Amino acid sequence: RRAPATGPPPAVEGGGDWLAALEEKVAVGPEYRTGQISRDFCLHLVQWQKQGQTMAQQSAHDLVADIVELLRETGSTVVDVVVPHGEEITIVGDIHGQYYDLLHIWEINGDPSEENPYLFNGDFVDRGCFSVEVILALFAWKLLYPQHVHLARGNHETQILNSVHGFKGELIQKYDVGLYDLFCEAFRLLPLCHLINASVFVVHGGLSWNDGVMLDDIRRLDRNCEPGVEGLMADLLWSDPQPGEGRTASKRGLGVMFGPDVTEDFLRLNDLKLVVRSHQLCQQGYSVDHRGRLVTVFSAPNYCDQCGNE
Known about the structure:
Layout: H1 18-26, H2 39-50, H3 57-74, E1 78-81, E2 90-92, H4 99-109, E3 118-120, H5 131-144, E4 149-151, H6 159-165, H7 167-174, H8 177-189, E5 193-196, E6 200-203, H9 215-219, H10 232-238, E7 240-241, E8 247-249, E9 256-258, H11 260-269, E10 274-277, E11 286-289, E12 294-297
Parallel strand pairs: 1-5, 2-3, 3-4, 6-10, 7-9, 10-12
Antiparallel strand pairs: 5-6, 8-9, 11-12
Helix pairs in contact: 2-5, 3-5, 3-8
């Protein structure tokens, strides 16, 4: 109905006008309450954000606070993932704030569930325009399915890159500095690696400058910090494979370029079969290298709206 053309708008109970009351009702999106998560909430949040709407400040704060508690209580630097025989897990590479491409993955492959587990391998935020929407959706699904939605830290889940590449500014524009600080706490608690069925090593970046690195060396790392510019943690977040043997300095300035012999030595030493990593644009969305012992997965198509990758 339209308001009368002349005269004051009709009153509603408690004062005010009917249009303001209607707008307030329409503006109510998914409401999150501490310790309460449901599939309906996750689906509502995904669709609400798809329409360009932002979740309420208090709901966003409570959701991220619950993620911090979950990761603090149950998280570890290396997470062991068991995929039963005959079942599958989907590994998703860099998303970089491309929310609608993330939704397209779920449209094709199905929403997360106990029967449809996912491992998101870092770099959820920065560069794209919808980093906030991406990370809130992922955190919501993680709260609902903590054993079936796995989140790894990438080099962009760090304060220094968030300050330069967009996430901090976007978050403060949509919410405030307090919520940004809470996100930083959550990022510091994310695992660095996942181990699938004790045979597949999943890491955002790559392997180390040093020979002889064991899984127990990685497990002993204190992940609850900002990474330095060198050391094992930086290597795991920043390194890339190279076609040639051995190691060379990385063009990124951090991490290392490592060859197929380095990959094979790491796998042999730790009784593993395969390395899966992300961090690097692939024109077809993935790449198989190092004599089939290393797979790169990159999940941000047409990266930065200009790269033309699938």
